[in-house]
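Case study 2.
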Amino acid sequence: MILDSLSNFINYVALNPRFAKVAGFIATHDLNTLEEGKYTIDGEDLFVNVTTAKGKTPAEARLETHDRMLDIQIPLSTTETMGYTPRTLLTPQPYNADNDITFYDGTTPQQYIDVHPGMFAVFFTTDGHAPCISNEVNIKKIIFKVKE
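Prediction:
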């Protein structure tokens, strides 16, 4: 997992061959004015979802992992709290290959992080994460999906 200021994302481009394209998208788009929807950057290997998610309580947020894609999550409208647990500490659960997701219902995250607007969090395939924790009803956010 990585947590940092969005202005520092360029420092991480060596970690994944597609991160340079993410940095380029961030540099050439006003993230706050993007219309909701899916933006394809590099086919199914790199795309971004602009969405308004429902805020959840910590008890409502579900830990999840992905096998093929990592997430770069960027809250836009409000601070978003995200739960985190290393995947190695999670009990294996059924994997949904169509949606590249495994949910871990009833599992409390090991820790929580606050991601403020202007920051980003990267969750690798080794990271369990529970997004969308907020007192706000809606959270406008961006999620880059990057093939790992």
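The two ends are 13 Å apart (CA to CA).
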